[in-house]
Specification:
The complex is a heterodimer. By secondary structure, chain A is mostly helical. Helix content of chain A is 69%, strand content 0%. The longest helix of chain B has 19 residues.
């Protein structure tokens, strides 16, 4: 199964902040998404998280909850 | 800057002096003040006294060979050559006397004895010697005519753009010196001695030689020995328009020298302007010669529509085309929502044309779905430099490189992609500056005549961040960093120093990642960090990676920790790909930023435009280009307006792009030609070439250059006018009388452009933003006393490897780039005689990789990745490191982006063009017929151009 674009791109962002503490990482990821992502992309990401998409990086999942 | 009557650009004979002292000189009774280092010839010209000359020109160092410029100097014996005689304070000079006239006539007579009596240059009026002979008063030649060896040398017209007639040559060496001093290629020399001396491009013909066809020699020639073929065909120009090149991000200023025949205006030749801030009288083969595409038969001059992409195009009126666009976009929004459409601006268009597109999208469409083709090249520069320095632009002007002691060149190949800047760089390197090249390929600058890099660090594609961190690690751990600068000018200092000092960033630790020997990297880092002035120049080999933005921040870190910011000779300098990448980004083309890089969520900034445009603006970011593709395939994005961009050829993963375009209900393309994207368009709006545009381009050094129309738009409308009419047809009132009004609005709403107008640009020539009350003439160097953001931000740049890895199935890494004679997707250059040099994309492969696959130079090979495959010809080259292959993306038949993937920069979605895992194998011969068909088509195409 192909990873959906929002998950692929979100995971790329999450990997960049993985060296930080969990709180700082999720805040940074959420901040980046808020700054640069169009609302329908955020909705799609939330949808993937809500659907339990296994491809979602745990950091991205937790960041999405902060949006 | 423009003239209705043709006059050549003034030539003061020798370059300007740059000494601090001012010298008072008297020339023929007139006094003139000049800086120390000024020649007598130049001082005379500045005093309004013209001294005869043949071997001198103010773009070259004085040579003193022709003996025409003799003068008398009080207190000095004899008659020294004014070109090689420097002024001294109080000097009294006589430039015209009976004795000087007698001497000059005698010299001219000798020249004429060697010159053919039937020289074609005399008839064309394109010969300095002919007019000089009349000036010095040669009425007869008292000596018998001679026929030096060069009069029997073959006439050479192998170069597509200029001819060499050795018989007309006077062996003044201006061409040889132009090739050496200005261009830095050293392709020309004088063979033989005395009567047998002849200028030669290395003993072969011009086309077969090392000549790069920059044309500097042709421009320098004082006779008709080297002449543009266009001058031979069209005669001399009748008027001049100063404008700006539409190729790379150097942004050269040109004098378009044109002739009018009835209603038909033709460019006779493009002469690089000495007053051009970016190029100072130099050019490359594209800018000087490859303008014929503007009149190419492929050029579309009428609007066209079709119901379905399977239908034939139907030529319609402008009114019908614009009504079709407006009704189509409105219908999509009515059915699918406001956010279902968007626009893409072009870095080949003017600032004014780009500005109105983003205005139409934000105010007319009611969303922020506007992006630019800079997405696929320098968007990481925008992100990285804004995060670290506070604004999305390079720090220097091009001239700054003349003060650099060490140049760190990363992921850029200026001799091919930014040739005029490369010539500046080579000049500085010949003067003794040291060069570090970080590039997987052994690019020309690693070793070229009179230039050799101190270090070539052939790092593996995708490992830039590990590399730059190791450079910074050495600087910090060996105490070579600038502690005072860091404490005064930067923030997050302690955190960054602790991060970068960690042994995981040492050259020894990252050698296994980068492939760069640790000892070499250490030496290179010491060289950079110890230099009085060290400058970083970089290109798409930095940005087009999954960590492109991180790498930009890593380079900014390196410059900050060594204090190499805020003065001449230093800085972090992106070499932009297209002519107006900087400008299109400045104009608010990114979906999250209004003009001037201000976020759409900023209420105050949004308020400025809401008041101006009379519409509420969306405070949320819009879709980027790849997001538009994904949303199109998801069914939520249904219509797009594309300004001068060929997405189907230039963007990665062609199958994905084509599927997205095919999924849309309305694709509107504004372009010169029916490009690959036109296959998926429903409306085609003909655009204007740079020769028809009125506006501004902004180059890689933030220089705002005027673009002036040489002739009226061939399709009848300015591009900004077309955009405005679409907006109005959609119900959004948007009207400008001319491009100057648009720039006035940009200046009124964007602080960095506050002092810009067409009038100020015409008066100043060009200016580098910011242009405001604090800097009314512009800002050549940024971040001088403080960064735009206040303190420089040191970002901890963690190396995160790309997910694109070589494996057993795809064991090689493909990286892509450009060559000198073609430009991007080739839409322009493929429609010129530049095809003579490069008719197809070539795959470069290391000898070991070729041998194990049974591949020889010239073989047709199949290049395949996990997303697609294509066929092209191989060139076995030791320039490549083992395991890495390289090609260009200039030709649609090759379609190099068929194999590139959806991987992109984490922060900006700039595609990872530079890292694709591939396999290469000998192809079957089926595609041979396609390539042959392309050659035939290209031959037909450029045969129709001049």
């Amino acid at each position: 199964m192909t990873t959906r674009p929002e998950v692929r791109m979100g995971n790329d962002i999450a990997r960049q902040f993985a060296h930080l503490s969990h709180d700082r990482a999720t805040a940074a990821i959420a901040g980046h998404l808020h700054m640069f992502w169009e609302p329908r992309m955020i909705r799609a990401l939330r949808g993937a998280v809500a659907a339990g998409d296994d491809d979602v990086d745990p950091l991205l999942r937790d960041a999405a909850a902060k949006l | 800057m423009t003239a209705d009557i043709y006059t050549p650009e003034r030539d003061l004979g020798t370059p300007a002096g740059h000494g601090d002292a001012t010298l008072h000189v008297t020339i023929d009774g007139a006094t003139v003040d000049v800086p120390a280092g000024t020649s007598v010839m130049r001082a005379a010209a500045l005093a309004g006294r013209s001294v005869p000359k043949l071997c001198a020109t103010d773009t070259l160092a004085p040579f003193g060979s022709c003996r025409m410029c003799l003068v008398e100097v009080d207190g000095v014996r004899g008659t020294p050559a004014s070109c090689t005689t420097p002024c001294t304070d109080g000097m009294v000079v006589t430039t015209h006397s009976d004795e000087l006239a007698r001497l000059r006539r005698g010299v001219m007579e000798l020249y004429l004895t060697d010159h053919p009596a039937d020289c074609a240059g005399c008839a064309r009026g394109n010969c300095e010697m002919q007019s000089l002979a009349a000036t010095v008063g040669v009425a007869e030649i008292r000596y018998p005519r001679r026929e030096p060896a060069r009069q029997h040398a073959p006439y050479d017209e192998t170069n597509p753009y200029f001819a060499y007639d050795p018989a007309a040559c006077i062996v003044c060496s201006r061409c040889v010196r132009a090739c050496s001093e200005t261009q830095g290629t050293f392709a020309l020399t004088i063979a033989g001695r005395g009567n047998g001396s002849v200028v030669t491009p290395g003993g072969t013909d011009f086309f077969s030689s090392e000549c790069v066809s920059c044309g500097a020699c042709v421009q320098a020639c004082p006779t008709s020995a080297l002449t543009e073929k266009s001058v031979i065909q069209l005669g001399m120009p009748t008027r001049v328009v100063e404008t700006t090149c539409a190729y790379c991000g150097v942004g050269c200023t040109f004098r378009a020298e044109v002739s009018d025949h009835g209603g038909d205006t033709r460019v006779v030749r493009m002469i690089p302007s000495k007053a051009g801030g970016a190029n100072e009288g130099h050019s490359c083969v594209k800018g000087r010669f490859a303008y014929g595409y503007a009149h190419h038969p492929d050029r579309q001059l009428h609007p066209m529509v079709r119901e379905s992409i399977d239908d034939e195009w139907r030529v319609v009126s402008w009114e019908e085309a614009i009504a079709t666009v407006a009704s189509g976009f409105k219908a999509i929004q009515a059915k699918y929502g406001v956010g279902a459409i968007g626009g893409i601006t072009s870095s080949r268009c003017t600032d004014e044309e780009v500005y109105v597109v983003q205005q139409m999208v934000r105010a007319g469409f009611g969303n922020n779905n506007v992006d630019t083709c800079a997405r696929v090249c320098h968007s990481p520069t925008g992100y990285g430099l804004k995060q670290t320095f506070g604004t999305s632009a390079g720090t220097q002007d091009f001239a700054s490189v003349a003060d650099a002691d060490v140049i760190l060149l990363i992921g850029a190949n200026p001799t091919d992609a930014h040739p005029v800047f490369a010539s500046r760089m080579k000049r500085r390197l010949r003067e003794g500056a040291r060069l570090i090249v970080a590039d997987p390929r052994r690019i020309d600058l690693v070793r070229t005549p009179h230039v050799e890099a101190a270090y070539h660090l052939p790092l593996q594609p995708g490992t830039n961040v590990a590399f730059v961190n190791a450079m910074a690690h050495v600087a910090v751990t060996e105490g070579l960093h600038d502690e005072a600068f860091l404490r005064e000018r930067c923030e997050n200092v302690d955190g960054y120093l602790a991060f970068i000092s960690d042994p995981q960033h040492s050259p020894e630790a990252v050698e296994v990642i980068t492939g760069v020997p640790a000892a070499q990297l250490r030496e290179a880092a010491r060289l950079y960090a110890s230099a009085p002035n060290a400058a970083i120049y970089y290109g798409l080999g930095v940005t087009e990676h999954s960590q492109g933005s991180t790498m930009v921040m890593g380079m900014a870190n390196l410059a900050m920790i060594t204090g190499n910011i805020g003065r001449r000779g230093v800085g972090v300098n992106p070499l932009r790909g297209q002519n107006n990448v900087q400008g299109s980004c400045d104009m608010g083309s990114f979906p999250h930023e209004l003009p001037g890089y201000r976020h759409v969520a900023n209420d105050d900034v949004r308020g400025i435009y809401e008041q101006r445009w009379g519409r509420a603006l969306d405070p949320e970011p819009g879709l980027r280009i790849p997001n538009m593709f994904d949303s199109a395939l998801a069914g939520t994005f249904r219509g797009v307006y594309i300004q001068g961009e060929d997405l189907a050829q230039s963007d990665p993963n062609t199958q994905h792009v084509e599927a997205a375009l095919r999924a849309m209900d309305l694709v509107v393309l504004q372009d010169l030609f029916l490009n690959q994207t036109a296959r998926f368009a429903h409306v085609f709006l003909p655009g204007t070439s740079f020769l028809e545009k009125d506006g501004t381009f902004i180059n890689a050094e933030r220089r705002i250059n005027r673009v002036r129309p040489v002739f009226a738009p061939l399709q009848g409308k300015d591009e900004w006018q077309i955009t405005s009419e679409i907006a109005q047809a959609m119900g959004y009132p948007m009207h400008y009388d001319n491009a100057a009004q648009i720039m006035d609005e940009i200046a009124a709403t964007t602080p960095t452009f506050a002092g810009v107008s067409f009038a100020t640009l015409d008066a100043e020539g060009s200016m580098q933003w910011p242009v405001n009350a604090a800097a009314p003439h512009g800002t050549p160097t940024m971040h001088v006393n403080e960064f735009v953001r206040g303190k420089g931000n040191l970002v901890e740049t963690v190396y995160v490897p790309t997910t694109e890895r070589a494996n057993r199935r795809y064991p090689l890494i493909l990286t892509t780039g450009r060559i000198l004679t073609q430009y991007n997707v080739g839409a322009q250059t493929r429609r010129t005689e530049n095809n003579a040099w490069h008719l197809e994309d070539i795959l470069e492969i290391h000898p070991a990789d070729a041998e194990m696959r049974g591949i020889a130079t010239g073989d047709l090979v199949e290049l395949s990745s996990r997303v697609g495959s294509t066929t092209l010809r191989a060139h076995v080259s030791s320039r490549m490191p083992p395991g890495v292959v390289y090609t260009t993306f200039h030709h649609p038949v090759t379609g190099a982006n068929v194999v590139t993937t959806e991987n992109s920069d984490w922060a900006t979605n700039c595609p990872e063009y530079k890292v694709t895992a591939v396999q290469v194998g000998v192809a079957n011969v089926r595609r041979e017929t396609d390539l042959e068909a392309q050659r035939r088509q290209s031959t037909v195409e450029y045969a129709g151009t001049t």
